[in-house]
Amino acid sequence: xxxxxLLLVLGLGLLIKGADWMVSGATALAKKHQISDLAxxxxxxxxxxxxxxxxxxxxxxxxxxxDLVFGNVIGSNNINLFFILGIxxxxxxxxxxxxxxxxxxPLSLFAVILLFFLANDVLSPGVNFLSRxxxxxxxxxxxxxxxxxxxxxxxxxxxxxxxxxxxxxxxIWILIITGMAGLxxxxxxxxxxxxxxxxxxxxxxxxxxxxxxxxxxSLPELATSVVAALKKNNDIAVxxxxxxxxxxxxxxxxxxxxxxxxxxHPVFNTDLLLLGVGTLILFIAMFTGIKKKLDRWEAGAxxxxxxxxxxYIVLNEL
Length: 318
Hints:
mainly alpha; two-stranded antiparallel sheet; about 80% helix
């Protein structure tokens, strides 16, 4: 058991460092082309911080650990929304752009609702799973989201800042490639050892996915949003979270189910419902108090909801 714990920690470390290197390289590349902070947060940073979930889910899907596939994505999205956004909002009230309020947040809510219908096979009840066709639908929507962000780039250029760090092209690509290698190796270590630990301790893959693995793969989002909040860069802090949640459902579950159909246990509906309600609460929060702003008390409420939820699912497992 000690060896599995050490290898799991090593895997998480590689995931976090790999994501950090890849995000640094990709962000530097984007800045060279004067791409805005919001666009970077919604795409490059969101993809980089979601990369651990993508790698973990790819291995989990190929090894038929289906509860881990859904537990990791749904758990990560709940951690992003309630825990990470809650902490970032406590550090500093987060001002949100109009496009995020009216487009990205509603899109992330649509993604949750669509996942519920696809995974529960509402139109053809009996078998609950994400088929390859479902995966293609999710990936098509992801492509549409990328096209939307691309259109935003044309009207949302950002000037280079005097104090901004400039990396050489060689350093940028070394960071990106090394980061990807760390993600792949770390992802394999996390999946293998998390499953072995769960089996040895008699804990379900669902709980492992929703808590340990989800928290581990969400650490890059946590680090990114906290640092962004401390630097008063609200666009990165919020764009990273909303972008990651959209990426996780459309891209990561899309890739996972295209690789192999993934069985869905209805027990996840409670966690999915929480994610949908939380996204709706975030949308409503944009119109309470100061408009288009997540106040500290609202961020604290999100954090409290996550703590209560985590205690609930762990006690139910015991």
